[in-house]
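// run 5 | inverse folding | seed 20
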């Protein structure tokens, strides 16, 4: 299983990275996590006809705006888009004129799927709601003998640790600065991410979704990594292009 980070900024693109997208390649599928502007890079990486599954965590534009680049995709196998039932309706509204090219005019066929009724998938799959300002889902995938949890955006909550329990890799946000003690129900610090990894028994932690206002340089990301490692040693701060093999 190979994990490639294609977008690691939250909110908006800067020189430090694009908005969120993570690509997981398994023996039987490509799993894409969120469709920020990092999503445009997927078209240059997927070179086989293995099925492609895109999971949208929530509908903030930094996780959705990359769908605007779909006219550049030419996947014979199409793309299966997964989200909550209510979120799918809004995605349908977004993926049409005047906002962008409608699915019927795209070179790549789109199939829209409710995460509550995922059908037969070539990997293990779980989901749970996270604590955020809008409905947001965390995901857990198992394939090729490894398990990955993807939980962004979120404040501290039980489902973050439940999805991460025993995972080989927990991918979660670090939108708040190290040492920030301000009340924030909807995002976490690197220290909180590290505690969640430690308490859930995850084996490795990858921090992403860095608020570009709080993390204007890569040195700021390194500081987040250092703060998290003091609590959970096996932590990395992911950058666009970071790869992990499990």
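// decoded
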């Amino acid at each position: 299983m190979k994990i490639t980070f294609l977008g690691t900024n939250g909110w908006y693109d800067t020189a430090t990275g694009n908005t969120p997208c993570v690509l997981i390649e398994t023996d039987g599928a490509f799993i894409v996590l969120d469709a920020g502007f990092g999503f445009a890079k997927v078209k240059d990486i997927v070179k086989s006809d293995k099925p492609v599954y895109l999971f949208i965590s929530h509908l903030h534009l930094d996780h959705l705006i990359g769908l605007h680049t779909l006219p550049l995709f030419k996947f014979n196998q199409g793309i299966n888009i997964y989200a909550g039932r209510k979120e799918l309706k809004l995605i349908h509204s977004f993926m049409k004129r005047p906002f962008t090219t409608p699915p019927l005019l795209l070179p790549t066929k789109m199939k829209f799927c409710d995460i509550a009724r995922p059908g037969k998938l070539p990997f293990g799959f779980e989901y749970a709601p996270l604590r955020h300002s809008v409905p947001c889902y965390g995901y857990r995938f198992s394939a090729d003998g490894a398990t990955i949890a993807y939980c962004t955006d979120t404040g501290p909550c039980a489902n973050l640790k439940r999805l991460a329990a025993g995972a080989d890799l927990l991918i979660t946000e670090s939108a708040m600065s190290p040492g920030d003690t301000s009340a924030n129900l909807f995002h976490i610090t690197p220290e909180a991410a590290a505690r969640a990894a430690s308490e859930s028994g995850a084996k490795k932690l990858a921090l992403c979704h860095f608020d570009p206002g709080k993390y204007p340089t890569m040195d700021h990301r390194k500081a987040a990594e250092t703060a998290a490692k003091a609590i959970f040693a096996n932590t990395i701060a992911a950058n666009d292009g970071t790869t992990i093999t499990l």
